Amino acid sequence: MIFSIGDIMIDAYFSLPGPLNPRTDTRGCIELVPGGSAANFAVWVSRLGAQSAFVGRVGDDFLGSGLKDDLVKEGVKPYLARDPSLGTGRVGVLVSETGERDMVCDRRANATLCEADIPCDDIVALASWVHISGYALFEAAPRAAARRAIDVAVRAGVPVSVDPSSYGFIRGVGAEAFLEMCRGASVILPNLDEGIVLTGTDDPEQIVSRLSNRFPVVALKLGARGSLGVASARTSNLVSAEPVDTIQVDTNGAGDAFNAGFVVEYLRGTGLAQALRRGNELGALAVSRRGAR
Ligand SMILES: Nc1ncnc2c1ncn2[C@@H]1O[C@H](COP(=O)(O)OP(=O)(O)OP(=O)(O)O)[C@@H](O)[C@H]1O
Ligand SMILES: [Mg+2]
Fold first, then answer.
1. 56, 63, 142, 255: least buried by Cβ within 10 Å?
2. Residue 259: CB within 6 Å of ligand 1?
3. Ligand 1: does its nearest atom lie under 6 Å from the Cβ of 196?
4. Domain at 257, CATH number
5. Is residue 121 in some structural domain?
6. What is the SS3 assignment for 166?
7. Which ligand minimizes its atom distance to the CA of 221?
8. Which of 227, 208, 217 lies closest to 276 in space, CA to CA?
9. Residue 99 placed within a domain
């Protein structure tokens, strides 16, 4: 079973046909969909036919109940703590008439995920892989929870992947401190911006090569340019995977879908190149759809 640990959210998309009418009503479209990087990953894993579990925290409210029902409907085993006072996490996505997006992120219960929420015994007994969303590493309580999950998995010989998730937040804590938080992970899955902040270079080959000094497997997501990876510290083994042709509708969630494709395929033992290709396929599928899933 592939365990995913981290954020779960309701995404609210506000689409405006034109400019807002100030101080009165504007007609538009509001879509409420399940989201959160780690939860998106868990859902894609399940859709790929692998056993999937999600560990996170929601509020004790109807949004949290709805997200739990949705995970179950998607075939994901939910380990959801209910925060008694903070509500369920939510993201507001303002989509302008030209398709540009501005996001307001309100993490709520995600910020109080804690060590006690980690199902350590089940990870030892059931996990074939543990995936950590970097968003869990930027605040004290969820960081302790993520670290506990990483340590338990590593001791049990279970591979761990980390998606750094946010170059802005990495800048906030510092690259070196962030890399130290990932200690023990065997796979790192950054996008280009995160790779730049983590290594101080903007050359994809250099990014992959530098990260491979710390992580046995690196897969760098390059948006419409596909992906680049290495599965040992030797740069001569760099593997590049061509992007899959797609019509870009909404890039939100492409990284989570890539991660799921990559991890599921890598666990099948078909090798790095095939895992990168599968990641690209899933990423391309995600950008062709509205919403993160
Ligand atoms: N326009 C595109 N055409 C084809 N494939 C794409 C496109 N955009 C993204 N992908 C695929 O999805 C993967 C992940 O996309 P990206 O590099 O944007 O990740 P990300 O920035 O982490 O995404 P997210 O915003 O979801 O966190 C890419 O490596 C690529 O395989
Ligand atoms: Mg990402």
1. 63
2. no
3. no
4. 3.40.1190.20
5. yes
6. coil
7. 1
8. 227
9. no
Give the residue, by CA position, lying nearest to ligand 1 atom 12: 283
For residue 242, the CA-to-ligand 1 centroid distance in Å is: 12
Measured CA to CA, the distance from residue 160 to residue 49 in angstroms comes to 20
Which region, left, alpha or beta, applies to residue 181 given φ > 0 means left and ψ of -120 to 50 means alpha? alpha
For 259, the token pair is 């991660």
List average pLDDT for each run of 10 residues in the chain, which is 293 residues long: 98 90 94 96 98 98 98 98 97 85 93 98 98 96 98 98 96 97 98 98 97 97 97 78 88 94 97 97 93 83
pTM: 0.96
Nearest Cα residue to atom 22 of ligand 1: 255
In a domain, 15, yes or no: no
Q: Which residue has the tokens 């599928």?
A: 285
Domains contained in the chain, number = 1
Q: How far is the CA of 272 from the centre of ligand 1 (A)?
A: 18
